Amino acid sequence: MSTPRYAVFGHPVAHSLSPRIHAAFARQTGIALEYTAIDTAPHDFVAALDRFAGEGGKGANVTLPLKEAAFAISATVTDRARRAGAVNTLSRNDGRWQGDNTDGAGLVRDLTGRQGLDLRARKALLLGAGGAARGVAPALLDAGISELVIVNRSPERADALADALGEPDRAHSRYWADLGDLGDFTLIVNATSASRDGKGEFSLPFGLATPRTLAVDLNYGEAAIPFLAWARAAHCHDAVDGLGMLVEQAAEAFEAWHGVRPDTDAVYAELRDRDKVLVTAD
Ligand code: NDP
Questions:
Q1: Ligand 1 close to Cβ of residue 89 (< 6 A)
Q2: Distance CA 266, CA 118 (A)
């Protein structure tokens, strides 16, 4: 029998740590699998996924900018993927793709479990309304935040996300240009890809932060440097990057595919050691 195939689809995707994480989980659990990265432009995504399925593909992770497209092609979706309107995990069942979204669970598990932080009653600002923001927003609401203010460069995407969440008393959108007028927040989540080239500063009003604020960047590695530098300059209490979320969302996908929950601590420690930087929780 051939080795079961899994892959991460994205554009670009060469940076993805998912092949390394899933290989580590596979070694740890003794499960034989092949996991590769497949660079796919949005216009070729459906065809590439069909080819992958035809070659025996059993499961796929999906990263930017394909998560909303993955939702659209899923024959069925889990409840958390439906609430997100975005899919980051596809499973092949009976010749059809089932879509799930493990981003939100991964983020909350990292923040509350690994980092030991309490999200309840925090007033939250979510920067971005792309696939990742869609994944984490419902999970943050479920984790007990008091309010979610969504701000995106393209305001119509922030409006659409707020509408999809369907909790107008707790979740609403505001304009990026009005960031200076929104008051302060005890949770600020950067779910934009603005710093992915690793250049430049993250320019936000310092008045958004308080000495109790938890600042979270979904990015990791060099892409997280500008936002975390802003968070420290703004005297946020905690500044956390997205490496732990990355490992936890991968573990959720691994469990969905293989029925075994891998231990994430060793994999997280190995990747953190490699990156040498970027998490403080003081
Ligand atoms: P998408 O392409 O779906 O969305 C990108 C988001 O970034 C949009 O809201 C976009 O705004 C915004 N954006 C892009 N450039 C700028 C800019 N110059 N200024 C302000 N906003 C900008 O990507 P994803 O949502 O999938 O991913 C977002 C980031 O989160 C990525 O960098 C990704 O690596 C990271 N991520 C990390 C994960 C983890 O496990 N740690 C998991 C998933 C994602 P607009 O709508 O106006 O274009």
A1: no
A2: 23
Q: What is the pLDDT along the chain (282 residues), one digit of tens a residue?
A: 689 999 999 999 998 999 999 999 999 999 999 999 999 999 999 999 999 999 999 999 999 999 999 999 999 999 999 999 999 999 999 999 999 999 999 999 999 999 999 999 999 999 999 999 999 999 999 999 999 999 999 999 999 999 999 999 999 999 999 999 999 999 999 999 999 875 656 789 999 999 999 999 999 998 999 999 999 999 999 999 999 999 999 999 999 999 999 999 999 999 998 765 444 332
- DSSP SS3 for 64: coil
Q: Across the strands, what pairs with 38?
A: 9
Burial of 121 from C-beta contacts in 10 A (0-12 / 13-18 / 19+):
exposed
Task: Give the residue, out of 63, 125, 150, 192, with the most ligand 1 atoms within 8 A of its beta carbon, to mutate for a pocket test.
Answer: 192
Cα(219) to ligand 1 centroid in Å equals 9
Domains assigned to the chain:
5-101+244-273 (3.40.50.10860), 104-241 (3.40.50.720)
Estimate the crossing angle of helix 18-29 against helix 243-258, to 10 degrees: 50
Residue 222 backbone phi and psi in degrees, to 5: -60, -30
Task: Give φ, ψ of 127 to 5 degrees.
Answer: -95, 115
CA–CA gap between residue 11 and residue 38 (Å, rounded): 8
| Active-site residue set | 67
Q: Which of the listed residues 8, 13, 64 should we mutate to test ligand 1's pocket, taking the one with most ligand atoms within 8 A of CB?
A: 64
CA distance linking residue 199 with residue 42, whole number of Å: 25
Evaluate: CB of 191 within 6 angstroms of ligand 1: yes
Span from the CA of 137 to the centroid of ligand 1 (angstroms):
13
